[in-house]
Amino acid sequence: MGERFKYYLTIVKYMHTPQEIDVWYVLPALRREIALALVGKGLKQREIAEKLGVTEAAVSQYLKNKRARSIRLPKEIKKEIGKAANNMIKNMDCQRYEIQDLLDKTRKTGFLCEVHRKYDNVPKCCNVCLCMR
């Protein structure tokens, strides 16, 4: 077994999957920004919690910047969050679709890869997210 192969096995052994990065970092950041957008549109914490499918306590922590504060979303994703918030106000049942659409956009723009590299020693040749489309 070559040294290079051993190196990649070591990295892969301790690396998180893109789905874990989504759940631990990206999804909370998206929820935080959606909560902020919905507050800006006059919704109460209880209404936001219902729309996001989280507790009122979680919404409170998002709004007070106590949860999901380590990730700052790019402008292009924030623009899409505004659209998603508007859609969520109009239609209660679209929450899952809007969240999934935003997660897909974090992959397509390469933002998920940025976050993944921030928390893991991801090799430059990694293309797992690109293969998941």
Protein described:
The chain has helices spanning 3-14, 18-40, 45-52, 56-63, 75-90, 95-108, 111-119, 128-131. The protein is an all-alpha fold. It has one domain. Helix 2 crosses helix 5 (75-90), helix 2 packs across helix 7 (111-119) and helix 5 runs antiparallel to helix 6. The protein is globular and about 45 Å long.
The percentage helix is: over 70%
Secondary-structure-derived class: mainly alpha
Poorly predicted parts: 5-12
List how many beta strands DSSP finds.
Answer: 0
Taking the sheet with the most strands, its summary is: none
- Backbone CA Rg: 17 Å
| C-alpha geometry | globular
Q: How far apart are the termini?
A: 32 Å
Count of folded domains: 1
Number of helices: 8
Average of per-residue pLDDT values: 86
**How much of the sequence is in beta strands?**
under 5%
User: What letter string, H or E per element, gives the SSE order?
Assistant: HHHHHHHH
Summarize this structure briefly.
This protein is 71% helix and 0% strand. It is mainly alpha-helical.
Topology:
Layout: H1 3-14, H2 18-40, H3 45-52, H4 56-63, H5 75-90, H6 95-108, H7 111-119, H8 128-131
Tags for this entry?
133 residues; mainly alpha; 8 helices; 0% strand; globular
